[in-house]
Each structure stands twice: as structure tokens, then as C-alpha cells.
Design brief:
By secondary structure, the protein is α/β, with parallel strands linked by helices. It contains 17 helices and 14 strands. The strands form three sheets. A six-stranded parallel sheet has the order 3-2-1-4-5-6, sandwiched between helices. A six-stranded parallel sheet has the order 11-10-9-12-13-14, with helices on both faces. Helix 1 packs across helix 3, helix 5 runs parallel beside helix 6 and helix 9 runs parallel beside helix 12. The termini are far apart. The relative contact order is 0.08. It binds nicotinamide-adenine-dinucleotide. Nicotinamide-adenine-dinucleotide (NAD) binds next to helix 5.
Length: 457
């Protein structure tokens, strides 16, 4: 049976892979190809050992790979055949030149635009899936129109709102799908075609259409608002530790107010992941470039508070462990930036482990999914070791620091762990996931976030 449309995704990463797998599963009459410049990534997507860990992803991939889902390194041929091209390449923070440390590095995105221009022989819809600065579509259109030939490219913005760790669930049942496009007839026709694709499984009233710039900016604003809530509750956790108020009780008390809502109110060691910091810094940079310094300063504070929270956590460990951790063994429980993912990009654990190593602690790292990334993130050191088994990681340790909220850490046998640790034994629960009273009864000195410590001193 011929396919109704050929869809291509350029960039087989955390977004491109899962997004296209779900589209392929839900749209059996569309042919979906995912390409990448990294041949190893493509080989991994074609194996049973996928390049990223997401619950349920392997099943979705297996259900349609080879049927209407293909992973390929043939970028030129795939561009030629495509009717709709999603661009899902990485847009990290720029590390050089103007805007270094703040602006988005658009080099990968621009290379893609030039490749599309080079190989396209027929009209195409280009969909910005990557998170991009507002008004990037304008630049994309300029590049795509630069050849002067008769091929027409209609650029749409369709930012991705999935959360890592629940990507498949989020893609199958999104709160909304956002599509931005131009008001002219060709723009509206393209919006219609992309809407039809999503309408294969997303109710039409959840498909929001806007102008291009609102769509591009909405993605940055959504991440800024989410991160802002984390920084807000983390700022209060610091105040709770000074006043014997309890941050979980406060979260419950304010979260029942429907105007506030109860989600994203968990105090933690700080937000991480590839997006929050990058997207807020980008927002700050854009605001400043328009001379809106007050707006820029306001959002910048969300990132600064996050840095404060990570530093504060290590500082507390130091002071509570008698002002030195030098030569002491510390088990780091978790390294991924959140549970249910192996992704460690910008994980709070990176900063915390590095700071503990600077203090000459002997860090014993464990994580169910993120150890291979952790090995790449951290500089080789005789002070650092990696352990699949959390019991082994905690053996002979002076302290445990919980850095990722893996449910596994809740169900460990803490009697067994305590008896194998040095005394006095400390637990710093950077995610507030453990049963602090029970741990205290076992004998631990317990330091939750934003709550009174439970000690035996
Ligand atoms: N990770 C998330 O949770 C998330 C969520 C929403 C949006 N986003 C945004 O989506 C975009 C992609 O993020 P990601 O996490 O998937 O990144 P990623 O680094 O996992 O994947 C990007 C892929 O693009 C490939 N690539 C780069 N240049 C290419 C080119 N010219 N041709 C072909 N392939 C190329 C890279 O090799 C890489 O495999 C970013 O803009 C990000 O901000 C990410």
C-alpha cells in the first residue's frame, strides 16, 4: 500500500527518536524516516539496544520499525523524498564568541537548513521541532529562499513539550500540540497538513495553532515557568531550614490552592537536563538584546537560584560532617538529572559530585541507568568509583547523598546499609524521597531538604 506522505526527521536524539516512533505507530499510512550525522546513533536505533532509555520506547519502536519507521544515514536521499521535514537537531548554549554562555548555538540548525536547500527538488513543509530563539523561522525562510529556484518551503514551528522519563506517555497523550505558521494561504495549508497528522491520535481541541513567533516563544516560556517553580520552592527550602518550617507541608498547603496547583513543588538539589538552563539563558539573552534588562534580570535569577541550591547542598554536607569530607567515603545515590532516564546533561549531580571531589571526598557513584554517561561527564579520578549496586556503593561510607529520585532508593534495606557504613552515618536526602523518621530510628543522622534535621548528637 503506498504511503500518503513521506515524513523525515533530521536529528535522531532524545526528541527526534521517540517523537517519530510514536508518529509512526499512530500514523501507519505515513512513511517516517529518521536520519542523523552520527552513524553509531542510527545503528543503535536499528538495534534492540536503543541509544536512549525511556520507559516503553523499545516496544513502540519494535512495533513499527521496518514497517513505516526507518532509521537511516542517507540524509540527501531522504530529503529528496520527504514531503514534511522535522528538524530536531541540538541547539545547545553557545560556548564561543558573541553571546557565549547565554545564546543558542544555531550552527547545527543552520547546517540542516543548507542541506535541505541543497538536496530538495520538490515543495516541502519544514517543521522546527528543535527549541529555537523567537524569529528563527524568519532566518530559516531566508536561507531556504536563497537559491532562487521554484521549490517552495513552508516553515512551521512545532515545539516539543515531552518530558524525559515519560516521553512515550507524554507523546501518546499530550496536554497540547502547538503549531505555529504564517497567516497566508500556503501557511494555513501547511498548518492544516500537520494538524491532520497529529489528529490521527490527538483530539483536535488539543491542537493549538498560533502565529510562528508565539509558537517559538511559547516553548522558551513554558520551560522558564516550569524551572521558575522549582527555583521558587527551592528558595523556600532554604528558609525552612532556618525556621523549622517544613517545605513539604508548605508545598501541600499552597498546592491545594487551585490557582497555584500542586505540581512542580518538590524541593530538590536543583533542576537539570538539557533544556531548562539553556532555554532560560536564551530567553534572558533575547530579552537583553531588545534592551529589556528588567525582564532579563528577572528570569536570570531562576538560574542563579538553582546554582545557589546546588552549592548550598554541598555546603551543608561539609558543615554537618564536621567541616571536612576529605578522605571520607560518600555514596552518591543517582546521577541522572531525574528518575526514569539515563540522561545526565546538566544534572545537578555533576556539580555536586565535582565539588565533593574538590573537597577530596571519595565518591562512590551508583545509578540504575546513568553510569555510562557519568563516566563520560566526570574527569577520571582515583577518588571516584562507579557501582551498579547501591549496597556496594554505600559500604564503609560515612554518608549517602540522594541526588536522583529513583523509586528504587525508597525500597532499599537501610538496616543492612546502616550496618555496613562508618559511624556516625549521615544521609543527605537531596530529593526528599526517603522515610526520614525510620532512617533516624535505624541510627542515621538525617538531613532532608527544607526540613529540620533528625540527628543523634
Ligand atoms: N531533550 C528534551 O527533553 C527536549 C524536549 C523538548 C525539546 N528539546 C529540544 O529538541 C532539540 C533536540 O534535542 P535532543 O535532546 O533530541 O538533542 P540530541 O543531542 O539528543 O539530538 C540531536 C541529534 O541531532 C543530530 N544532528 C546534529 N546536526 C545534524 C545534522 N546537520 N544532520 C543530521 N543530524 C544532526 C545529532 O547528531 C544528534 O543525534 C533541541 O533543540 C532541544 O532543546 C529537547
Amino acid at each position: 500500500m503506498p504511503f500518503v506522505k513521506n515524513v523525515l526527521c533530521i536529528g535522531a536524539g532524545y526528541v527526534g527518536g521517540p517523537t517519530m516512533a510514536v508518529i509512526a505507530q499512530k500514523c501507519p499510512d505515513y512513511r517516517i524516516t529518521v536520519v542523523d550525522i552520527n552513524p553509531q546513533r542510527i545503528a543503535d536505533w536499528n538495534s534492540d539496544d536503543l541509544p536512549i532509555y525511556e520507559p516503553g520506547l523499545l516496544e513502540v519502536v519494535k512495533s513499527c520499525r521496518g514497517r513505516n519507521l526507518f532509521f537511516s544515514t542517507d540524509i540527501a536521499g531522504s530529503i529528496r523524498q520527504a514531503d514534511i521535514i522535522f528538524v530536531s537537531v541540538n541547539t545547545p548554549t553557545k560556548t564561543y564568541g558573541e553571546g557565549a554562555g547565554m545564546a543558542s548555538d544555531l550552527q547545527y540548525w543552520e547546517k540542516t537548513a543548507h542541506e535541505i536547500l541543497k538536496y530538495a527538488e520538490s515543495d516541502k513543509i519544514i517543521v522546527e521541532k528543535s527549541t529555537l530563539p523567537v524569529r528563527t523561522a524568519e532566518a530559516m525562510e531566508r536561507i531556504l529562499k536563497s537559491s532562487g529556484n521554484s521549490v517552495h518551503f513552508e516553515v512551521l514551528s512545532n515545539p516539543e513539550f515531552l518530558a524525559e522519563g515519560s516521553a512515550v506517555k507524554d507523546l501518546l497523550n499530550p496536554d497540547r500540540v502547538l503549531i505555529g505558521g504564517q497567516a497566508h494561504p500556503k501557511g494555513q495549508k501547511a498548518i492544516g497538513e500537520l494538524t491532520d497528522l497529529y489528529a490521527n491520535w490527538v483530539p483536535r481541541d488539543r491542537i493549538i495553532t498560533t502565529n510562528l513567533w508565539s509558537s517559538e516563544l511559547s516553548k522558551l516560556v513554558a520551560n522558564a515557568f516550569l524551572a521558575q517553580r522549582i527555583s521558587s520552592i527551592n528558595s523556600i527550602s532554604a528558609l525552612c531550614e532556618k525556621t523549622d518550617a517544613d517545605v513539604s507541608e508548605i508545598a501541600r498547603a499552597i498546592g491545594t490552592d487551585q490557582r497555584i496547583g500542586n505540581r512542580f513543588l518538590m524541593a530538590s538539589v536543583g533542576f537539570g537536563g538539557s533544556c531548562f538552563r539553556k532555554d532560560i539563558l536564551n530567553l534572558v539573552y533575547i530579552a537583553r538584546s531588545y534592551g529589556l534588562n528588567e525582564v532579563a534580570d528577572y528570569w536570570h535569577q531562576v538560574v542563579q537560584l538553582n546554582d545557589f541550591q546546588k552549592n548550598r547542598f554541598v555546603h551543608r554536607m561539609l558543615t554537618e560532617m564536621f567541616n571536612t569530607v576529605s578522605g571520607k567515603k560518600i555514596a552518591a545515590f543517582g546521577f541522572a538529572f531525574k528518575a526514569e532516564t539515563g540522561d545526565t546533561r546538566d544534572s545537578a549531580a555533576i556539580t555536586i559530585v565535582e565539588k565533593l571531589l574538590e573537597e577530596r571526598a571519595l565518591v562512590r557513584l551508583t545509578d540504575p541507568q546513568a553510569l555510562s554517561n557519568a563516566r563520560k561527564d566526570l574527569i577520571d579520578s582515583s577518588l571516584l568509583s562507579f557501582h551498579d549496586n547501591p549496597y556496594e556503593a554505600a559500604e564503609e561510607c560515612h554518608a549517602i547523598a540522594v541526588l536522583t529520585e529513583w523509586p528504587l532508593y525508597r525500597s532499599l534495606d537501610y538496616h543492612r546499609i546502616y550496618s555496613a557504613m562508618k559511624k556516625p552515618a549521615f544521609i543527605f536526602d537531596g530529593r526528599n524521597i526517603l522515610d526520614h523518621q525510620t532512617l533516624h530510628r535505624i541510627g542515621f543522622n538525617v538531613f532532608p531538604l527544607g526540613k529540620s534535621a533528625l540527628t543523634h548528637f
